[in-house]
Amino acid sequence: MTANPRACRPRPARKRRSPPAPRKLNCWEYKKCGRGPGNEPKCPAATDVQADGINGGIRGGRVCWAIAGTMCGGRQQGTYAVNIETCLRCDFCQMVLREEQAETCEDFVPPRPGR
Fold first, then answer.
1. Which residues lie below 8 Å from residue 106, measured CB to CB, with a gap of 6+?
2. Any residues with CB less than 8 A from the CB of 71 and at least 6 apart, and which?
3. Calpha distance 96→49 (Å, rounded)
4. Spatial contact of 70 and 43, defined as CB atoms under 8 Å apart
5. Which letter does DSSP use for residue 110 in this model?
6. What contacts 66, CB < 8 A, 6 or more positions away?
């Protein structure tokens, strides 16, 4: 009786797939303010296409502290210079800081034309 040559071959190891990275929340999702894309009125963070992709966010959704006039806390915020102290105490900004392993949220100010 002849042995089956296939029976003696080791099976090739299967490649393990890494689980997909968890999707990063944008400020309007985290704060549940209802001012993200597709809603009215929109926050400037939800319309800032120059910030798209920064910190893995949609538009300015993960760099909202650097965008003037955001609608955080139910009221319109000021410019970056006025706003940054409040933003640095924000739980969302602190979460992004941890996730991106940054020293300060100021590390993620998007470049603007003319700067």
1. 84
2. 33, 35, 41, 43, 44, 77
3. 19
4. yes
5. P
6. 51, 60, 80, 105, 108, 109, 110
User: Taking the domains of the chain in order of start, what are their residue ranges?
Assistant: 27-105
Tokens representing 43 are 């926050």
Residue that is written with structure tokens 């020293």 in the block: 103
Please report, in tens digits, the pLDDT of each residue of the chain (115 residues total): 566 655 566 666 677 776 666 789 999 999 998 898 888 888 899 999 999 998 899 999 999 888 888 888 777 777 776 777 788 888 998 899 888 887 666 565 555 444 4
